[in-house]
């Protein structure tokens, strides 16, 4: 198996491509790999093909700026140089799209990976009463475990100085997609991974409604969920600590 | 309650009632060590004169002397919980694997190594799976590196001076050092043809939380390890058996245990563990995200609570220092509450991103004294005072508590945590 890293002359183009990742176009939504026979095979479960990926907001921490891309490229070249004396081992087995789909449950902040299906606030409430209420409280106020609902007056974000307000989906979570992703993989605690997509949409909808982010008649699906603008979205900043004398 | 736990929040009433944190805690308001919580056992016996009888024969599996009963301090008996390393008990820099701290979000899974597979996909030329045997067949590397939970030290930070009865274990027991062995991640990424556009990858665990973190690709090209061994033997189940990600110098949560999947992408995934958790509220109504690096920190481990010095004279002040940013270059000790400082000796080996043992002889005059330690790393970063950290982050910031710790030695020799 030959390696297919870009030759040095292509790195500038790659860097430009990376820069454009700050405002991805719909076509960048699915990672497409060339299979052995050269045919392109989509490797992610995707939303319905007609749905463009909603744009990531430019302030999203984790979208690399020019200097960070430069540093990444240098690290990549250095890393590859470290191992350039080693052969291509060819260990492991090719993973088929089905094999990948069996495990690939992650959801991006742009909604990438959201499965087909939908769920209403109303159905979510019923499910919540049956499966979640004993640990998270009737209105998501938290009982045995974490609070899920609650906003800070004026959607302020005083958490570094003020302990009075609980950290909740409505007061702190920057992306609604995280709620779907987490419930599907980890909840309810005694039966994680047991909820089908429709139930996860419904529970997500209900918890968002408890947080005043949806109305009681609303429903959610792959298109609407990533478009919900969370109150705390713009509160997050990248890590500016990098050693040196300054305490940050 | 539960939400406070990983940032070292106070034990809840339920935790206290459950008794797992020790009964002495209720009155003092601090968590007693697990050793105290154990029912008192009769002291083991030894012959009057061991030279007058033959000893034990060799055994297939060794165990500690019956006189030694170190214990991790378990915070609460629930799947999402932690246990802490008895730092005051340890010498040198290596943490025995059975005393390495734990933090899990959904308990310790039971994984059959023969059915284990690691899937790598996303922005790669050739998505692939690797068995454990495949991973072990690649050229390996071993590194002595610390691992620290970024919530370590939270109780001490947020409750200045309120818990004099805190041992190093209770305060900072969510840090440990091991020799980690595995495959350099860059080798696996070259093997699958990681595309240059990939800027992040998702690491996913095989526990009941199917726990996920987004990790910058740069870390993979730098020094990330896909580890399968710890201190010479396969990982302990609670450390990720059979395979974990290991990100040297970075907050523990990102070193995803029971690793089953790596998904390469051009943006982070914004999982629950990097949004709702493991973000650091800052003054100005912001929160820091992807705050992976662990800044320089040091901790005196002797003399500390619950130690009592037997009298004036020579004592060796001992402790550990570490930084996620490379090498510790200096540790200073003050025995007068921070008015004057002197260099401690750094004991070999001094390794990057690893606990370093420091020592300083002290001739105690028998009067009350306040002991402090302060680490400096190779970037010129100096471990800050609590006030400096508070000014930069606010009183209730949630992670990365590396402020200077101090210990009060009373004239009767009893030592207390002093903030």
What does this structure look like?
The complex is a heterodimer of chains A (248) and B (419). Chain A is mostly helical and 248 residues long. Chain A has helices at residues 11-20, 66-82, 97-103, 121-131, 133-136, 169-172, 177-186, 197-210, and strands spanning 32-34, 40-42, 93-94, 118-120, 219-221, 236-238. In chain A, 31% of the residues lie in helices and 7% in strands. In chain A, the strands form 2 sheets. Chain A has a two-stranded antiparallel sheet with strand order 1-2. In chain A, strand 1 (32-34) and strand 2 (40-42) form a beta hairpin. Chain B has a domain at 297-417: Immunoglobulin-like. In chain B, a hairpin with a 6-residue loop joins strand 1 and strand 2. The interface between A and B is large, with 95 and 95 residues.
According to DSSP, the number of beta strands of chain B is: 24
Hey, which two chains have the biggest interface?
A: A-B, 95 and 95 residues
> How much of the sequence of chain B is in beta strands?
25-35%
**What do the pLDDT scores of chain B average to?**
91
- Derived structural class of chain A: mainly alpha
Instruction: Please identify the top-level CATH class of the domain at 118-235 in chain A.
Output: Mainly Alpha
Number of helices of chain B: 9
CATH topology of the domain at 297-417 in chain B: Immunoglobulin-like
Helix content of chain B: 10-25%
Q: Strand order of the main beta sheet of chain B, please? A: 5-4-13-8-9
Approximate shape of chain A: globular
Let me know the average pLDDT of chain A.
83
CATH topology of the domain at 118-235 in chain A: Cytochrome Bc1 Complex, Chain D, domain 2
Largest sheet of chain A: 2 strands, antiparallel
């Amino acid at each position: 198996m030959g390696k297919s890293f870009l030759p040095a002359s292509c790195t500038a183009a790659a860097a430009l491509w990376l820069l454009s990742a700050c405002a991805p176009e719909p076509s960048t939504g699915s990672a497409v790999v060339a299979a052995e026979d050269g045919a392109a095979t989509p490797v992610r479960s995707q939303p319905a093909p007609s749905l463009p990926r909603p744009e990531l907001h430019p302030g999203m921490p984790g979208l690399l700026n020019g200097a960070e891309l430069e540093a990444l490229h240098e690290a990549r070249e250095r890393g590859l140089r470290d191992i350039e004396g080693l052969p291509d081992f060819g260990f492991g087995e090719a993973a088929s799209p089905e094999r990948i789909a069996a495990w690939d449950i992650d959801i991006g902040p742009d909604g990438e990976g959201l499965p087909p299906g939908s769920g209403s606030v109303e159905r979510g409430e019923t499910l919540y009463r049956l499966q979640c209420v004993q640990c998270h409280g009737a209105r998501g106020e938290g009982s045995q475990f974490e609070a899920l609902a609650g906003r800070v007056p004026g959607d302020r974000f005083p958490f570094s100085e003020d302990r009075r307000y609980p950290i909740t989906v409505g007061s702190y979570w920057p992306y609604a997609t995280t709620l779907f992703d987490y419930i599907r993989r980890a909840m309810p605690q005694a039966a994680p991974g047991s909820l089908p997509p429709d139930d996860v949409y419904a529970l997500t909808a209900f918890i968002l409604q408890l947080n005043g982010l949806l109305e009681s008649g609303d429903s959610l699906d792959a298109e609407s969920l990533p478009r919900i603008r969370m109150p705390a979205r713009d509160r997050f900043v990248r890590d500016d600590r990098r050693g040196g004398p300054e305490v940050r | 309650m539960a939400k406070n736990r990983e940032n070292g929040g106070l034990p809840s009433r339920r935790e206290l009632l459950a008794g797992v944190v020790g009964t002495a805690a209720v009155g003092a308001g601090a968590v007693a060590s697990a050793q105290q919580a154990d029912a008192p056992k009769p002291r083991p016996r030894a012959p009057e004169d061991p030279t007058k009888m033959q000893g034990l024969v060799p055994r297939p599996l060794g165990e500690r002397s019956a006189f030694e009963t170190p214990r991790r301090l378990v915070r609460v008996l629930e799947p999402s919980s932690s246990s802490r390393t008895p730092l005051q008990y340890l010498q040198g820099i290596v943490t025995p694997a059975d005393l390495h701290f734990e933090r899990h979000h959904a308990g310790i899974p039971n994984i059959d190594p023969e059915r284990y597979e690691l899937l790598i996909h996303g922005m790669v030329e050739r998505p692939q799976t690797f068995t454990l045997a495949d991973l072990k067949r690649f050229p390996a590397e071993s590194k002595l590196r610390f691992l620290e939970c970024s919530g370590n030290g939270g109780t001490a930070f947020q409750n200045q001076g309120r818990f004099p009865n805190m041992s190093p274990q209770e305060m900072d027991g969510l840090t440990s050092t091991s020799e980690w062995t595995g495959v350099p991640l860059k080798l696996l990424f070259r093997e699958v043809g990681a595309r240059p556009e990939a800027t992040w990858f998702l690491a996913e665990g095989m526990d009941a939380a199917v726990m996920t973190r987004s990790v910058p690709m740069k870390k993979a090209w730098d020094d990330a390890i896909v580890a399968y061994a710890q201190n010479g033997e396969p990982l302990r189940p609670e450390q990720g058996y059979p395979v974990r990600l290991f990100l040297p110098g970075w907050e523990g949560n990102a070193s995803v245990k029971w690793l089953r999947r790596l998904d390469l992408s051009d943006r982070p995934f914004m999982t629950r563990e990097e949004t709702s958790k493991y973000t650091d509220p800052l003054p100005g109504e912001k929160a820091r995200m992807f705050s992976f690096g662990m800044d320089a920190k040091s901790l005196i481990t002797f003399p500390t609570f619950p130690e009592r010095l037997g009298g004036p004279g020579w004592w060796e002040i001992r402790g550990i220092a570490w930084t996620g940013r490379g090498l510790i270059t200096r540790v200073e000790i003050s025995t007068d509450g921070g008015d004057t400082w002197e260099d401690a000796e750094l004991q070999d080996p001094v390794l990057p991103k690893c606990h370093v043992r420091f020592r300083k002889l002290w001739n105690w005059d028998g009067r009350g004294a306040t002991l402090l330690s302060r680490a400096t790393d190779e970037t010129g970063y100096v471990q800050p005072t609590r006030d400096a950290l508070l000014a930069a982050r606010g009183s209730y910031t949630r992670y990365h508590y590396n402020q200077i710790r101090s210990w009060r030695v009373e004239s009767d020799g009893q030592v207390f945590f002093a903030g």
